[in-house]
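hey m, so remember when u said the tokens were messed up on ur end? i reran from scratch. heres the input so u can diff it against urs
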Amino acid sequence: MASCQACDLAQLRTRVVPGEGAEDADILFIGEAPGFNEDREGRPFVGAAGAFLDELLSSIGLSRKDVYIANVIKCRPQGNRDPLPAEIKACKPWLDRQIELIQPKIVVTLGRYSLARYIATESIGKVHGKPRKIGDVLCFPMYHPAAALHQGSLRKVIEEDMRRLPQLLRDIGSFTDVTEESGRQLDLF
């Protein structure tokens, strides 16, 4: 991954930010893209949003060492802009491989770009906190932690969604696969 040249972001990055955490984690958090601090340190979620994510994890008795944290794209878009479709497509094999190796029971999508990987037809505002079984994984959409930093009213919503994770992990077997119900592929990138 460190030598990837699949898109133009490779020319601008300081470091690739592959992800970190338990390689056998039951829960995989997928964010959007590295920011300034992540690009400098080579670690995901190390800025203000990362501090809030750490606080959220702690609120349910977990830490970074208990979960795996990654991003849809592995290099920082210049100016902290949104990832482009070509960049998401270029990084897809890296994230696919991470998911394959980790085999999480729950994938928590943090924000709209990671949500689009699983549920492209709905907005985060409509589906946050509503788990959906997709294949072998329970997808649990949440707002990105940075959303609470920009819009304080979302903080409580994000905290409430996070508090649902332990029970979802316990109830994992009771969810129905929506790909079987709809009969269509949800692999959008």
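this time it looks ok to me. The radius of gyration is 16 Å. if urs says something different then somethings off w ur setup not the seq
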